[in-house]
Amino acid sequence: MNVREAFRDQAVSCDALGSPLTARLCRLCADRLGTGAVADAVLGWLGEPSSKGDSVALRLMGGLHALVQTGADPGLAAAYAGAADLSDDHLWSAAAPALDRHAGHLLHWLQSAPQTNEVRRSAALIAAGHWLTARFGLPLVLSELGASAGLNLLWDHWQLETPAGVLGPAGAPVVLAPDWHGAPPVVAPPVVADRAGVDLNPLDPVADRLRLLSYIWADQADRLSRTRAALDVAAALRPPVTRADAVDWLAGRLASPMPGRLHLVCHTIAWQYFPAAAQTRGEALLAAHGARATPDAPLARLGMEADSSGQRGAGLFIDLWPSGQRIVLGRVDFHGRWIDWQAPPP
Fold first, then answer.
1. Per-residue model confidence (pLDDT) at position 316
2. Could you give the domains of the chain?
3. Residue 200: left (phi > 0), alpha (psi -120 to 50), or beta?
4. H helix intervals, the chain
5. Which residues contact 294 (CB under 8 A, 6 or more apart)?
6. Are 43 and 35 in contact (CB under 8 A)?
7. Bridge-partner residues for 305, per DSSP?
8. What is the DSSP string of 77-91?
9. Which residues pair with 143 in a beta bridge?
10. Of the candidates 124, 263, 96, which has an alpha carbon nearest to the alpha carbon of residue 180?
11. What tens digit of pLDDT does each residue of 215-249 get?
12. Strand locations in 146-243 (E)
């Protein structure tokens, strides 16, 4: 896929995920990017530009959105605010000059892959945490792979609205209300005894706040406000996220005995991006430690990832040891907008 095709493909995804402004900007870039330092860097991209590789379109969209959030380009900010009433020509007349005026900023933004740390994915983690607690009745130890800034390591601090009622603490600063399909979740409030995460490029909830917010699409105000609230909590609680290879880190994490606790290894839209060799090592590592799990120190792996089923959204599953079972919990929208809950009774 060439760069212009990658922008058009990203536009389709943005439309499907409820961001018409970002979709328009991606199409405009695909059709109208010409020359200049930023355009040359984008159009001459040497890697895989699509969302399956370097996500060049989202890198550029993030850089532009950062200019809007900081007020560095008032004309662009005004165009974003009134985009619904602007023609494509008017919108491009605001975006195109920004590419040249802020070339240094945008070139810097292009160097980093997007990380949104989408907190709505915590809806699946909350429901799964209650299911696991109902099944095992043990405190949880959380190990998250691809944790970014750690927002989804704090899922027990968020509130989830479900057909079974509200799960999570009263007065939570983040309230998740996905469209719920399927059976209501079981209610069994979990206790998190310990939590830690790993990422190749962990982001700090204070120092990297702008970067995290910039990758959220500018016309999705609810996502922005929700992420700001989650970042405020993460800045106060500082969930530990280590910079390391995920599988190497997990090996050390699994080596520590955890009697009387359920060790929950989780990953949401992260495993699918691991190199094939890392996935193979990770599967073998989990299987080896799973074989040594006991009823009083069980191991679980919760995955929310794209799959080849042909169904919408991401697959949601739990692997359990020592039983060696895989439990299908259902499917989830990639941004957590809906859940199709198919979990059996725990």
1. 97
2. 3-109 (no CATH), 119-341 (3.40.50)
3. alpha
4. 3-16, 20-32, 37-43, 56-70, 74-81, 88-101, 103-109, 122-136, 209-214, 221-237, 246-254, 276-291
5. 322
6. no
7. 315
8. HHHHHTGGGS-HHHH
9. 196, 265
10. 124
11. 999 999 999 999 999 999 999 999 999 999 999 99
12. 159-162, 165-167, 175-176, 179-182, 192-199, 241-243
> What is the chain's length?
346
Name residues whose C-beta falls within 8 Å of residue 338's C-beta, 6 or more positions apart in sequence. Answer: 178, 179, 180, 181, 313, 332
pTM, entire model = 0.91
Say what percent of the chain tops pLDDT 90: 91
Quote the CA–CA distance of 128 and 160 in Å, as a whole number. Answer: 12
- d(Cα 319, Cα 292) in Å, to the nearest integer? 14
**Which residue bears the tokens 């190990």?**
143
Cα gap 146→268, rounded to integer Å: 8
List the beta bridge partners of residue 181.
340
Give me 122's structure tokens.
């915590």
Residue 141 and residue 264: Cα distance in Å, rounded? 6
In whole angstroms, give the CA distance from residue 288 to residue 312: 32
CA distance readout (Å), 85 to 24, 82, 219, 272: 13, 6, 13, 39
Structural tokens at position 95: 């975006």
Amino acid present at 130? H
Mean pLDDT, the chain, rounded, equals: 95
Phi/psi of residue 213, each to 5°?
-70, -30
Answer whether 190's CB lies under 8 Å from 156's CB: yes
Q: What is the pLDDT of residue 192?
A: 98
pLDDT digits (tens, 9 = 90+) for 287-299: 999 999 999 999 9
With beta carbons less than 8 A apart as the criterion, state whether 123 and 339 touch: yes
Mean pLDDT by 10 residues, the chain (346 residues): 95 93 97 96 94 92 97 96 94 96 96 90 97 98 97 97 94 96 96 97 95 94 95 97 97 93 96 92 96 96 92 95 96 94 95
